[in-house]
Amino acid sequence: MKITFHGGAGGVTGSKHLIEHRGKKILLDCGFFQGRRSEARKLNSELPFDPSTIDVVVLSHAHLDHCGLLPLMVNLGFSGKIWSTPATKDVAQKMLKDSASIQESDYNYLKKNRIKGHETLAKPLYTRNDIPKTMRRFVTHDYVRNGGGWLEILSGVRLKFYDAGHILGSAVSVLDFRISKGKFRIGYTGDLGRRDVPLLYDPQYIRDRVDVLLCESTYGNRVHHTSEEADEKIIDAVKHVCANKSKLIVPAFSLGRTQAFVYTLHQLTDSGRIPRIPIYVDSPLAGRVTEVFKKYRDDYDLESRADFPRKGDVPLMFRNLKYTQSRDESMSLNQARGPMVIISASGMAEGGRVLHHLKHGLRAKKNLILFTGYQAENTLGRRLIEGARSVRIYGRTYTVNARIEKINELSAHADSEELSDYINHIHGLKKVFFVHGEKESARAVKKMMKKRLPLVQYHIPNRGDSYELLK
Ligand SMILES: [Zn+2]
Questions:
Q1: CA of 109 relative to ligand 1 center, distance in Å
Q2: Contact criterion met (CB below 8 Å) for 147 and 126
Q3: pLDDT digits (tens, 9 = 90+) for 265-294
Q4: Lowest mean pLDDT among 119-128, 404-413, 454-463
Q5: How far is Cα 127 from Cα 429, in angstroms, rounded to an integer?
Q6: Are residues 21 and 153 both part of a single domain?
Q7: Is the overall model pTM greater than 0.85, yes or no?
Q8: What was the pLDDT predicted at 164?
Q9: CA torsion sign, 205 to 206 to 210 to 214?
Q10: Rounded Cα distance, 451 and 49, in Å
Q11: Residue 368's pLDDT is what?
Q12: What is the pLDDT of residues 389-446, one digit of tens each?
C-alpha cells in the first residue's frame, strides 16, 4: 500500500492525498492551490495523476482548498463516486458554483479589457455548466454520531466519518482496508476544528484503532485564546461604532468565519451585552450557505439548539440582521449612516464586495475594520493589520484613518494543544503524517508529539513525496 501527498503537504492549500492498494486508487480531497497567482494557476491546471484512473474520492469538507478541483477531475474523465457527509455535499455545490462564476467573470473581464497576456492565465478551469455533472458523482454517508457506521465504498475498503468540528459538514475519515493479516486503518483529520467554538460540535475523537493518521497542522505552533476573549473584543468594537455613529467593517470568508461571527453577535445582542444595531451580511454566497445551515439543524452543537429552541429558529437569523443580495442593496450601504456592522467577503480583503466597503470606509477615523482570521502575505488585509497609512484598491490610493483591529480567537483550526490531545486519544497508532501546515508549525507539533507518544513514527511529507505503508 502506497500513499502520495500531492498537495496540502509542506503548505496549507491544494489538499490531495492518494492511496494505492491492490490496484485501487482512493483520493482524499482534491483542493485548489492558492497563493501567488501564476504558480497556483500552474499547479491547479496540471493534475499530478490521471483522474480517469481514480476509483473513488473521499471529501473531508467543502472549503475550496479541499474540494475546488473536483469539477476539473470530472471534466478530465473521473467517473467514480465522491463520498462526503450530506451537509458537505450541499455546501460544496454552493462553493463550486461560486468558484466557477468567479473564474468566468474574471476571464470575461480580462477579455473585455484586453489585458494582454492574461487571457490564458485566467481561462476558467471549469464553468458553472460543469457543476451539475460533478454533483451527480456525490454520494453521502453520515457521521457516526448520526448513525453512520462502517460503509463499504470499494471491495475490501470501508469508510467511517466522525465530526471534525471545523465547518458545517466537516469530517474526519477513517478507511479500513482488508489485508491478508487482518485490517489496516488510515485516519485523515481533514481540517480539525476547536473545542467550545460557536455553532459547531467539538471535534469527535476517533473510537477505532488506527494504524496511520494524516493530521493537519495549520496551527501546530500556536495556542489560541478562549472565545470569551473574542467576545470582549467584539463588544469593544461594537461600542466604539455606537459611540461614534460609525461603521464596523468585518472582512470574513463566506463559509465558516461569517457564520461564527453572526452567531456571536446574535448571542451578544440577545443577552444585552451589545445594543441592537443594524447588521448586514453583504455576501450573496454567505446568504446561500446560511440556507444550508437551516437544513442541517442537527449538525449544530447542543448549546446552539438550547439557545434557539423553537422550530424554524435559526441562530444565523435575527431581527436586526439582514443578508443583502443585490448590488444596489450593497452599494446603498456606502451612503448609509452608522452605527452599523457590515460583514463582507473576502476574509483577507483580496476581492469581493468588502473592497467597496473599505474604499468608502477607510478614510473616516471613526470607523473600525475588524479582521477575523489569518492574513496571508501580500494581501490587502496583511498590509492593513501591519499599519499601512495608505493602500491601493482598484488602482487608486486611499488614506487609512480608520481604526484597524484583529481577532484570532474565531479560528476554525485546532491549536497545538488540541491537535496533540486529538492524536493522543487514538488507539494503536504507529505512524503520523503531518499535512496541511507550514514547515514551522508541522515541526512544532511533531516535536510535541515525540515527547508525548515516543513510540509512534512522525513524518512531515513534502508535495510529491510517496511512502510505502505496508511492506
Ligand atoms: Zn477548511
A1: 29
A2: no
A3: 988 998 899 999 999 999 999 989 988 888
A4: 119-128
A5: 42
A6: yes
A7: yes
A8: 98
A9: negative
A10: 37
A11: 98
A12: 999 887 789 999 999 999 877 778 999 999 999 999 999 999 999 999 989 999 999 9
In the sheet with 16-21, reading across from the earlier edge strand, the strands are: 138-140, 81-84, 56-58, 24-28, 16-21, 2-7, 466-468
Cell readout for 165 is: 468540528
Same domain, 358 and 460: no
> Which residues partner with 84 through β-bridges?
140
The CA distance from 197 to 412, in Å, is 8
Q: How far is the CA of 141 from the centre of ligand 1 (A)?
A: 19
Q: Are residues 143 and 95 in the same domain?
A: yes
From 360, 382, 406, the end of a domain falls on 406
CA of 138 to the centre of ligand 1 (A): 19
The CATH number of the domain holding residue 267 is: 3.40.50.10890
pLDDT score recorded for residue 454: 97
pLDDT for the residue 121: 59
pLDDT at residue number 437: 92
The amino acid that residue 183 corresponds to is K
In the three-class reduction of DSSP (H, G, I as helix; E, B as strand; rest coil), residue 174 is classed as: strand
- The C-alpha cell at 266 is 446574535
Backbone angles phi, psi at 181, to 5 degrees: -100, 30
pLDDT digits (tens, 9 = 90+) for 222-235: 888 777 888 999 99
Question: At which of 391, 406, 421 does a domain end?
Answer: 406
- Whether omega for the bond prior to residue 346 falls within 30 degrees of 0, making it cis, is yes
Q: How far is the CA of 412 from the centre of ligand 1 (A)?
A: 8
Which residue is associated with the grid cell 494582454? 116
| Peptide bond connecting 48 to the previous residue in cis, omega within 30 degrees of 0 | no
Do 295 and 169 sit in the same domain of this protein? Answer: no
Q: Running DSSP on this structure, what letter comes out for residue 250?
A: E
**Boundaries of domain holding 277:** 227-406
Q: Higher confidence at residue 267 or residue 370? A: 370
Distance between Cα 100 and ligand 1 center (Å): 19
pLDDT-based confidence at residue 39 (cuts at 50, 70, 90): confident
Select from 409, 358, 360, 361 the least CA-distant residue to 379. 358
Task: Kindly give the distance from the C-alpha atom of residue 332 to the centroid of ligand 1, in angstroms, as a whole number.
Answer: 32
Q: What is the pLDDT of residue 307?
A: 64
d(CA 248, CA 364): 11
